[in-house]
Structures are given as C-alpha cells and as structure tokens.
Write a structure and sequence with these properties.
homodimer, Carbamate kinase, 8-stranded mixed β-sheet, 12 helices, 18 strands, about 25% strand, Asp/Glu/Uridylate_kinase (chains A, B), kinase (chains A, B)
C-alpha cells in the first residue's frame, strides 16, 4: 500500500463528465490498495469567469478580495469530485486549503506555502477516506484567504506530498509524460520514463511547460518523487526523482519560442537589476560593439516592449523573432562550443551562447527554431555518441 | 453613530450593476456616520446553477459536500461587494462565515447557529472598515462547512446583530416594508410603519413571506429591532420591535393560498405525529362525521399528495383548492366567531376556524380567496370599529 497524492488540473476537471472520469481514475488507485489524496484546480474557464466579474467592478480589483473570489473555483471542484466519489460508494471528504491547514505568507495572488498541517488529512486517511483538496489556496497567519499564483495547484500537491511523506506525487496533465523536447516541434521527441530532478528543473526553467519550476524545486527539496501522467490515457508517464540517468546522452532540449531581441543604451548590471525589480525573466548580455557608451541586449517575450519601456526608457526592438534552445544534461555545460558549432556548421547563426549547470543555451533566429531543435535533438539526445569528449554515463 | 447590520438578498445582488447599487446604499449609511456590517446572499440564480451541477452528478448529493458547494455562492458576492466598496474609496473587508466565526450545529443544509464570535468583526469596525459577511453559512464544531437552510441570510444578519448588540438589523428586500396584507391581492393593503414582534411572528407563521419566521423569532429573543426596507427605493420601511401597536385595529391578514384539503382514515393524533416526523407544516382536524372510524382532514400545499402518501397511505385529495386566512392582532383570538360570521354573512363558506394567540385562522374555498381577504382586511384592519366587543388600544 502506497500513499499517493494525485493532482488534476483545470482541463482534467473541466466538465461534469471529466470530473466523473477523474473519480474513476482515483478509484483505480484506491482499488490497488493505495491511500489517495486528490488535489484539484478550478474547472477550466471558471477562474476567467470570476476574474471577468471582478474586472467589471474594478480594472485593478483589491488583491485580498480577488483571492476570496478566485478561491471559490477550487471549492466548487472539490465538492463535485467528492460527490462523484461518494456516489460510487467510496468515502470521500473534501477540504478547502483552510480546512486542511495550508498556511502561506500574505502575498495575495502569489502566496508561498509556509506550512502544511497534517492532522486533519491523516485522520481522514486512517478512516479510509479519499481526501479531496482544493489546490492553489491557503490562509495567512491572520486567516486571510490567499492564492498561490501560477501553477499553484501543482505546488499544493507537492507540498502536501512532502508534509505527508507520500510515496509519489502524481501530476495528471494533458500530455502523457515529460518528453525529450516539444513533440509539437519534433516528431522524434520521445517520452522519458525517468528524469533526474536537476534535469527537470533545468528543462522547466528553460521553457518546458509540463511542470511548473517552483513545484519541481519544492519536490526536489522535500525529496518527493513526482510522476507526470496523462489524465486521458493509461500509461506509466515519467517519474522525476534522484535515480541515475538512464540515458548516455543529454536529457532533452528545452525551447523558448516567441522571444524578441531588445536593446537599451544602459549598462548590463543596471538593466539586470531593473528587470529583477519588475519580475521579468530575461536573458541579458552586453553589446560588445559599444565600448564607450555601454548598451545591453535583452531577450524577452515578443510582446514585452511596452512593459520594458516602463522601467527602461528608450528600449528598442532590434529583432522581432528569436528563440532560445537549451540542451539539458549532466556535464553538458562543458560542450557549449561543440553544440553551437553544430548549428553554425549547418548555416544557422548563433547570436549568443551561454553555459550554466547542466545547460547549454543558444540564442538563434526564430525562423530557424524547428530546424535547430530537430538537429540538436538528433545529435545530442538521440545519437549522443557525437559527444565524444564526455565520459559515457552508465546505462541502467 | 449607530451600529447597523444590513442584509441584502439574492435579487438585490443579482448582477454587477445591483452589487454596485448595494455599495452605494451601504455608503449612504456610512456617510451618515454609522458603522455598518453588510450580510449578503448568493447572486440570484447562482445557488440554482450550483445545485444543477451537483444534480448532474447525483440526484441526491452528499449533504456535507452540497454545503461545501453552495457556500461558494455567498463567497463570490462578498468579494465583489468589498471590491465595489474599495473602488469607491471605502475600507471594506469581506468575511466568510468561518472567518467571522459563525458556529452552527452539524445539520448539513439546514444548520442552526449556535454562536457568533465577535472579535474579528469588532476589530474591523474599530478600524473603520465596512464588514461584508457571507450569509447562509457557518462551521460546525468539526470545522465542516454548513449552510442554514431557507432564509439563512436573514438569520445570519439577525444573529450577528444580536451578538454585536447592533442598534438595528435592516433587511433589504424587493418590497418596501411589511404590509397589512398581500398588496398583490388587496389594493387597500397599506405599509405598516411599525409592527410588534408578536404580530410579525404570527404573520410570518401564517403565510407572510416578507420575513422568515426563524429570523423574526431569533430577533425577538435577542431583542434586535428589525427594519424591512426596499433595496430599490428610498423609504423608512417597517420597524419590527416591541413598541406599542400604533393601530387600534388588527395588524393585518396573512394569507396561505395554493392549499388543498386531504383526508385520511386515521385518527388526528396519529396523523399529526406522522406529519411532524416528515416536517410537513399542516393544519389538521378530525372528521366529525366519522365517530366510529376516525378520519382526519389535512390542509397542506396543493402539490403534497405524493409526499403525504409516503407516510400516510391512502390519503385522498378531497378539495383541490382551499386557502387559509389569518387575521393577526392583539386579543383578536377572542373574536373568531365574529370574524367567521363576517364571511358567512357574505355567502362564503368557512370550512373550519381556529384561534391561537393573536390569531384567528379561517379555512375557505380557494376561489373566494381575494374576496374574503378584501372583506376581512377592510372590516377588521382598515375599519376596525366593527370590533365592538374589544377595548380600543391607544393610538400612538
């Protein structure tokens, strides 16, 4: 018997039919003898509906009250899923963030979990109940309702799994696992059966959307094995844990498309500091052509010009379509020259390259995106013998 | 400066525009220097929408989970109203039943308030906040979400007013006060400026819908003056308190239409006991024609035959349309013969009559309803000199 925390997102609970399908899925795990805690999001569309009501009253609604409003979305889902489980003869009890005891700081709309109480949920599990928990929400020390911001339900699931020392935290999503690269771009992309936390963190940080960065980091920190599964299809999915890497190549290629290159006549340090304050995640590098009057290039989403200009006056768009490819794998950072060269050899320009732990990132022309990902993926993930200067890792 | 508790029902907060109008109404009271606690219901239609979702899953949804679901309706309203007040420059804080500290028993879907904590709301009022509270909901001793059943938001408002020793509990509704009888039936019906708690209780018990019986009883018990006001129009409304009656006649005529007469071949005591178990509120009387084989007549809503037959087999419908008129006023119970006679003189048959404290109830043919109410209302409320055997009460 294992203790599983299963998380289903908004699309997975987007209609009554899908909530019933989730109930069946949960019951499968129960029938295999497992204890189950289910974490759910608001039904797809519900958060936007509520936000629409708020915006009719105030373009910038009070943050505290927005959390009171939005947290009802998950509360509706937990009630409906618990009903669906009860209807099928299974004892199930829903808990709001407050009822379970999810404590957060007071950053409304983007709170961080500070503590997860285990008493209520443990007592229910001991009485053989399936526990259905509202994701995305908690309470601060003053008993104000808070919400966690993007990917909040994943974070809730991982935090509960950590607090309960669960055997696995299963994230059900619309894909059937973590892929070596975006399968919509590269048909050769393959599902990984396992991936190391450090590689998953790197993939998430550099554009892979299957898991939220924060929840992967939290899971690693609390040593909670994560499994990514499809809500709609059977399968083993991808296990994210600390196992030895099972491939001798790189783990995968993360992609950030829809980026643009901006330029501002200010020194790099100042630009990085300002962007940090604005919360913009951007790759910046100095313009080496301008020794006397320092200037900085900024790679950011291709619709960020207006926002950049708020704090960095006279920012200019210099390239409307660029993309960042990041090859992720243990020790790969030593091969950046070789990785970049593999594209230039094919006539694709690499504007900039950067190595960080387990990562080589390349800034390229957006029009070359698909060709470049296909090539890097084939050469370093599928046929990694080309990485001739690296020791081969053991194949499990 | 007075402390007011204002309650707005589902129709009053049924759209964003109406929520904005409620905000303006609340601000009026605030501008007059009053402290205000606002209690709101779910937006009109929302409870039915949620119930519809639940019924798609289970025709008889788990009662606990139904309360988790339905309580989101009021939570949406409090957030939106607090936003609307904030937007207008007023400090306002929303509180769910749990956050305020509304304690109830564990009768899901029909809970009773056992305690109202005052600490949180008092602290907010002292900081000059308008407090916006979710009606209809509370928590039991195990921290389960409960809802209060019909008229629950009125009860919440009255309970909070009682706990805070508020100066007035103002119930905003779609009519502008308590009328001497149903104005849709009788054009002569007049708004009362004041009515005694005991008369209001009798009116509510016998069919007046403007206030829920439980909340009137609760207000009387906790000595909370109630005021019924229109959400949509200015005016003084009707004050319900312990003042001397301001009219020398009866207070009014309560009406229960859409009733039917049923008959079952069982003794009166047994029938009353069984109906009590089913929670059916019905007027019962023995069939005096049947000395040997006792039978009982039951007056109940005209669509109750199926439900009656569940516990009282072979109940028969004997009269598909009857109505109950109840004349309410201090000492009126001594005049039942005179009241009944006033109808029979006009050729209207009185099937049965009954006197209880401050009440004379008459069972009549449903087709005579309007004529009978008009006549009784004119004779005993508008021109009460006809009550010649009663001492006249002081006119205020």
């Amino acid at each position: 018997m294992a203790l599983l925390v299963q998380k289903f997102g908004g699309t997975s609970v987007g209609s009554i039919e899908r909530i019933e399908a989730v109930a069946e899925r949960v019951i499968q795990a129960r029938q295999r003898g497992h204890q189950v805690v289910v974490v759910v999001s608001a039904m797809a569309g519900e958060t936007n509906r509520l936000l629409g009501l708020a915006k009719q009253i105030d373009a910038v609604p009070t943050q505290r009250e927005l959390d009171v409003l939005l947290s009802t979305g998950e509360q509706v889902t937990i009630a409906l899923l618990a009903m669906a489980l009860n209807k099928r003869g299974y004892q199930a009890t829903s808990l709001t963030g407050e009822q379970l005891g999810i404590r957060t700081d007071t950053v409304f709309n983007n709170a961080t979990i500070t503590e997860v109480e285990t008493e209520v949920v443990t007592e229910l599990l001991e009485r053989d109940h399936i526990v259905v928990v509202a994701g995305f929400q908690g309470r601060d020390s003053q008993n104000n309702i808070t919400t966690l911001g993007r990917g909040g339900s994943d974070t809730t699931a991982v935090a509960i799994a950590g607090a309960l020392a669960a055997d696995e935290c299963q994230i059900f999503t619309d894909v059937d696992g973590v892929y070596t690269t975006d399968p919509r771009l590269v048909s050769e992309a393959a599902r990984l059966s396992t991936i190391h936390f450090d590689d998953m963190t790197a993939m998430a940080r550099h554009g892979a959307k299957v898991l939220q960065l924060q929840s992967v980091e939290y899971a690693e920190q609390h040593q909670v094995p994560l499994r990514v599964l499809s809500s709609f299809a059977e399968g083993e999915g991808t296990l994210v844990d600390f196992s030895t890497v099972s491939s001798h190549g790189a783990a995968g290629v993360a992609v950030k498309g829809r980026q643009a290159l901006y330029r501002v006549a200010q020194p790099l340090e100042k630009v990085e500091q300002q962007l940090g304050l604005l919360g913009v995640d951007a790759w910046c590098y100095g313009d080496s052509q301008q020794a006397t009057y320092p200037a900085t290039y900024i790679v950011a989403a291709d619709d960020e010009l207006a926002r950049l200009n708020v704090i960095l006056e006279k920012t200019e768009l210099t390239q409307p379509s660029v993309a960042i490819l990041t090859l992720v794998g243990e020790g790969i950072e030593g091969d950046s020259t070789q990785v970049a060269a593999s594209l230039t050899e094919k006539g694709m320009r690499v504007y900039q390259q950067k190595s960080t732990a387990r990562c080589v990132s390349l800034l390229i022309n957006g029009q070359h995106l698909q060709l470049a990902v296909e090539h890097i993926h084939k050469k370093f993930v599928v046929e990694p013998e080309s990485l001739d200067n690296r020791p081969l890792l053991a194949v499990s």
